[in-house]
Amino acid sequence: MIGSALAGGFLGTLALTTIVRVAAEIGFTRLDLAFVLGTIVTRNRRRALAIGYVFHLGLGIVFAFAYGAVFELIGTGSWWLGALLGVVHAVFMATVVLNVLLPVVHPLMGTPETAANEFALIEPPGFLMLNYGRNTFLVTLASHMVFGAIVGWAIRV
Question: For residues 12 and 8, what is the distance between their CA atoms, to the nearest angstrom?
């Protein structure tokens, strides 16, 4: 399972990242996930993008192993089961991780508690990432379903 999780995680993250990047380039969302992730560790915009893409790829591979563990636990895996897990993954990311946890740990992101005399350089995504556009959650949902389908297709239980 290790090789198939690595391959599925790499290919799935590549597809997910491409979908989000294209959606941003055509104005469908304002989300730049690589920038948001990279600015956790650096204020340099170019370096932040590079770090963010590498960090996101690593997270994708970790999540592929988590999907594989779920497949092992239930005794089966498929592309459609992976896509279903992608739905759960997207909803969790949009409601808990990016809405609640990320603004607390990101040094440049505002929070509801940011004081008037403080400044935030990055707007928090908000619930369902609505602060980055009404379509952002739809892009996130679709891209995570594609990620899950690719991981589910790649991992054989």
Answer: 6
CB atoms within 10 A of CB 44: 12
pLDDT in tens, 34-48: 999 999 999 998 999
Domain locations along the chain: 2-154
Query: What predicted TM-score, i.e. pTM, was given to this entire model?
Result: 0.92
Going by C-alpha positions, the residue among 97, 102, 68 that lies closest to residue 85 is 68
Rounded distance, CA 106 to CA 29, Å? 21
- Furthest C-alpha separation in the chain: 54
Mark out the alpha helices in 26-156 (DSSP H runs): 33-38, 45-74, 79-92, 102-105, 136-154
Q: Which residue has the tokens 């491409």?
A: 18
Cα distance between residue 54 and residue 127, in whole Å: 25
